Amino acid sequence: MAKKTYDLLFKLLLIGDSGVGKTCILFRFSDNHFTTTFISTIGIDFKIKTVELRGKKIKLQIWDTAGQERFHTITTSYYRGAMGIMLVYDITNEKTFDDIVKWLRNIDEHANEDVEKMILGNKCDMEEKRVVSKERGEAIAREHGIRFMETSAKANINIDRAFSELAEAILDKTSGREADADHARIAVERRPSRAPPTRACCT
Ligand SMILES: Nc1nc2c(ncn2[C@@H]2O[C@H](COP(=O)(O)OP(=O)(O)OP(=O)(O)O)[C@@H](O)[C@H]2O)c(=O)[nH]1
Ligand SMILES: [Mg+2]
Predict the structure, then answer these.
(1) Which ligand is nearest to the Cα of residue 123, counting in written order?
(2) How far is the CA of 126 from the centre of ligand 2 (A)?
(3) In sequence order, what are the beta bridge partners of 147?
(4) Could you tell me the residue ranges of all domains in the chain?
(5) Which keywords appear in this protein's UniProt record, sorted alphabetically (predicted)?
(6) Is 105 helix (H, G, I), strand (E, B) or coil?
(7) Which CATH number fits domain 8-186: 3.20.20.100, 3.40.50.300, 3.40.630.30, 3.30.1490.20?
(8) What's the 181 CA to ligand 1 centre distance in angstroms?
(9) pLDDT in tens, 147-173
(10) CA-closest candidate to residue 154, choices 23, 41, 45
């Protein structure tokens, strides 16, 4: 049988308005490549990258969704399997930031309850065109108890870090579950196989 080349598989999802840079973020992370040509994603696409975290090989299967409304039905059908979701807005476009609440609502409706989330304010290389301050990004993330980072796919700022932090948060959760499972197994193994029935004494 072929040897498994990874220890864990994490499924991640990128969501956010069209044009915020989701595909570029993914390409920078997977291929260290960037292009200024905008080719809007049709439906959904994915890339794979294996990273090493705390001595474990983690295969990241990253789903890149189309931000355009007409693909809403197909893209939301991918939320359920995601263990981590990156919500992306563009710091030079107010509407994409306002829409973060809409994307958060979509997550509430379609994703697993314990999915790890992270908000990314992308295109932070365009300081001269900035309309959303970093503080506002931090504030909305704090309000919803979510991680936050400003990124640039173009200048390669915080791209690797964003994926590592999200994967690490999932790893923390997964390790917790593994520990729980071990604990439960030990508890079962220690239980006497034929424990005498406990009875209330009646005289
Ligand atoms: N300056 C700058 N431009 C960026 C950055 N990231 C993406 N872009 C540009 O923004 C445009 C849209 O990028 P995409 O990655 O295709 O956007 P998307 O979010 O995938 O859009 P949809 O697939 O339609 O949902 C392209 O012209 C990119 O070159 C960035 O970090 N800085
Ligand atoms: Mg795209």
Answers:
(1) 1
(2) 19
(3) 118
(4) 8-186
(5) GTP-binding, Lipoprotein, Membrane, Nucleotide-binding, Prenylation
(6) helix
(7) 3.40.50.300
(8) 42
(9) 999 999 999 999 999 999 999 999 998
(10) 23
End-to-end CA gap in the chain: 64
Q: Which amino acid is at 32?
A: N
Please report the pLDDT score of residue 138 as a whole number: 98
Pairing of strands 56-65, 44-53: antiparallel
Over the stretch 117-152, which tens digit does the pLDDT of each residue have? 999 999 999 999 999 999 999 999 999 999 999 999
Q: Hey, what are 162's tokens?
A: 């964003």
Ligand 1 contacts (CB < 6 A) are 18-24, 35-36, 38, 40-41, 66-68, 122-123, 125-126, 152-154
Please check whether residue 12 is in contact with residue 61, taking contact to mean a CB–CB distance below 8 angstroms: yes
User: What DSSP element (H or E) covers 27?
Assistant: helix 22-31
Residue nearest to atom 32 of ligand 1 (CA): 123
Q: Structure tokens of 42?
A: 């049709």
Alpha helices, DSSP H, located in 32-99:
72-76, 94-98
Nearest to 88 by CA among 34, 12, 35: 12
Distance, CA 19 to ligand 1 centroid (Å)? Answer: 5
CA atoms of 38 and 21, how far apart (whole Å): 9
Q: Which residue in 44, 148, 138, 140 sits closest to 100, CA to CA?
A: 140
Token pair 């005289």 in the structure block, residue = 203
